[in-house]
Amino acid sequence: MAIHLESRGPAETLASRTARQLSQLSLAAVPGTHLGAEDDLLARFGVSRPTLRQAAKLVERDRLISIRRGAQGGYYAERPDARDAIQSLARFLRMKGAHLGHVIQVTRPVSEEAAVAAARYRSAADVEALQAFAATIDARDTPRDLIAAEVEMARLISQMSGNPVVELILEIGYSFGLDEKGGDLYADPDRRRRTRDMQRSLCNAIIDGDPDIARLMMRRRSDQFDAWLHLGDAAKKDRQ
């Protein structure tokens, strides 16, 4: 994701220079900070309203600001997250013909390390969040519910790992991969039951602070998904 921070030299336009200045202003502030109303920023940067708005579109696209209307309106500092980055990455993967099997191959070792780190470094707030998620597992009984639960759990665990690279890779895996084939993967009620059981076992291992069991549970999940994918691919070939 491009962030407009560096000058482009003599060819830099007034709008791109203003975007760079606005980006710097946002990065110097805590996310959520009010950077000023439009009139405040017009005076600060010494540009016209159309130029500021053109620059703001560039910075807003990079998720470094948000623009709010109304009594508390104005420009606010923001930060991009993994879900923002995933949109362009998912398009690239689809263009290259990637499928869920490719994703699992790459995310398998990363997900295991994420589970281990989550079990080792979880905080009291992390445990509370995972317990709240675990309490909803039995109610997730449709393919759509299971896809949402898998994504939610992956995000919780990746955040608990404390590694932003892990967070990005797992976001790719669950947001792209399951969206591509999740309906088929969870069509069978017995699979959904087994998925819920695996979710519960993994959550309990992390809550208990047992990294070895957390790794084992995550590995079993990957093995199970891989087996289901191979079965689905074999059945598709038989029908052809």
UniProtKB/TrEMBL annotation:
It comes from the Bacteria. It holds the Pfam family FCD. Residues 8-79 form the HTH gntR-type domain. Keywords: DNA-binding, Transcription, Transcription regulation. InterPro entries: GntR_C, TF_FadR/GntR_C, Tscrpt_reg_HTH_GntR, WH-like_DNA-bd_sf, WH_DNA-bd_sf. The keyword Phosphoprotein does not apply. GO terms for molecular function: DNA binding; DNA-binding transcription factor activity. The keyword Transcription regulation applies. Signal peptide: none annotated. Gene3D superfamilies: GntR ligand-binding domain-like, Winged helix-like DNA-binding domain superfamily/Winged helix DNA-binding domain. This is HTH gntR-type domain-containing protein.
